[in-house]
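Notes from hallway chat w/ T.B., transcribed later so I don't forget. T.B. wanted the structure written out for a chain they're using in a teaching module, and asked if we could keep both sequence and structure tokens in one place. Agreed to drop them here.
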Amino acid sequence: MSIDYLALANAGVEKLHPYQPGKPVEELERELGISNSVKLASNENPMGLGPKAKAAIERALPDLARYPDANGFALKTRLSEKLGVNTDQLILGNGSNELIDLIYHTFVSPGQQVVFSQYTFIVYALATQAHGAEAVEVPAKDFGHDLDAMAAAITDQTRLVCITNPNNPTGTFLTKAELVAFLARVPEQVLVVLDEAYTEYVAEDERHPSIDWLAQYPNLIVSRTFSKAYGLAGLRVGYMVAHSELIGVLNRVREPFNCNSLALAAAEAALDDEAYLSEAVALNRREMARYQAFFQQQGLRYVPSRGNFITLDLQRDAAPVYEALLREGVIVRPIAGYGLPTCLRISIGLEQENQRCMDALAKVLG
């Protein structure tokens, strides 16, 4: 073969490496010849599909030969009621990941700058590279965002700022006062994506009214997902809320039928399943406390988290510990690719899954 396909690719693609997801259970068991392993690597809801979402999927099955509603009317209507926004302020996507990439496709050009924090969602760096823009990675502060430094990093070439709150993969959390003060400093021509994929796990008295900020800051875009607390990671459906004119521009670029029928039906039903959501959040809170107590008992350093995961800092190369845990049938997430080679991110699972992880850690580190 004489074709150099990489040379044919767009500028910026050459230095990219594929996103590395959490290792699948089936792959681990096939490789090691083991069974009954547990996956605590991808921040999924361990409770599985909620009953109302499952029933909605079953009702939608007979119509799968038809295209889905390209505008997601029913889900947008339900979201508008819940969030107190107009439907033209909403856009739906194949997970919030697709919508973040859509922001780049629509507003970021080669040579422009994108500002984001060190130790944050890796997709920002990947998308910036893929679109030929300049990545301005601001050093982290206590494993999270340094908003003062990020504001200072904005220049005339900056088009986009990305913030994840709670942060992934470290779980750090920015206060309302910090975020509002930051937004007030950002020039109006610079867009700010506030990625709140894990917001449902934040205690209600700490959760921010970020949707209300849109009226004062028309350059703000709030991104959320059904993949985490709502338990629909396998269906891939997320949404963004922003100024209606900004959403209108995004819809010019959005692919038609980008959300499948089952995802739309399940997400709409999940919004009404308050019992499931409350149980998921309560489980996460209980098991997070157990992990913290275990780490403290073992003398291990960890980053306090507001998400459905916790980052363990082993203060030495974490790769051998990760491999040893795999041999114990426990899959966690090494995050050297995020610039944290001494850390492992552990998703909060069911009680028995978490106990299995703690027992394996005690054995491996013992």
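Follow-up for T.B.: The chain has a mean pLDDT of 94. Might be a good example for the class.
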